[in-house]
Design brief:
Distance between the termini: 24 Å
Oligomer: single chain
Radius of gyration: 16 Å
Order of helices and strands: HHHHHHHH
Largest sheet: none
Number of domains: 1
Number of helices: 8
Number of strands: 0
Shape: globular
Helix content: over 70%
Structural class: mainly alpha
């Protein structure tokens, strides 16, 4: 698939990925959702079970997504799946995508802490909110943290 809709391009660019041709946007559209999908499922299991262990175990991966030029889960795509599909590697994470990982890290910490501190309602609310935000990204490509970043710092303008 080498065609990309304006909506898909805009949603990927809103995450800070600029300067790519339409064919590349089309090819990375779904692979960019792999890491959020893994985090979503992991966080859903941890939240459903009210498991501090499961949630705390995900925190370092989310934090590394904020620190590194890519998410650790992207390795599955970059060194495996993309070779099967003949697609390009994922580009380095720009600040807006890293901001999403920061938000996920903070929400995971808050959910795990809520369960650990005997405040399960905090854990459930924050945990399911994270799962919901990730679900929106995985199912539509719309990144809620990138939207929040846009509200704070303005729309991403790609040249």
């Amino acid at each position: 698939m080498s065609q990309v809709t304006a909506t898909v391009r805009e949603r990927i660019q809103a995450q800070g990925f600029c300067g790519l041709d339409d064919a590349t946007y089309a090819q990375i559209n779904y692979p960019l959702r792999l890491s959020p999908a893994i985090c979503m499922v992991w966080a859903a299991v941890g939240t459903a079970l009210a498991s501090t262990t499961i949630l705390w175990a995900l925190v370092p991966f989310a934090a590394l997504g904020a620190i590194l030029p890519g998410h650790p889960f992207d390795v599955l795509y970059n060194y495996g799946l993309r070779r099967i599909f003949g697609t390009p590697p994922l580009p380095r994470y720009p600040i807006r995508r890293r901001f999403a990982c920061v938000m996920a890290t903070l929400m995971l910490v808050a959910a795990a802490w809520g369960f650990q501190a005997g405040m399960p309602m905090v854990g459930y609310i924050v945990g399911w909110s994270l799962v919901g935000a990730a679900f929106v990204n995985v199912s539509t490509g719309f990144c809620v943290p990138s939207f929040i970043y846009r509200l704070a710092f303005g729309k991403m303008v790609c040249k």
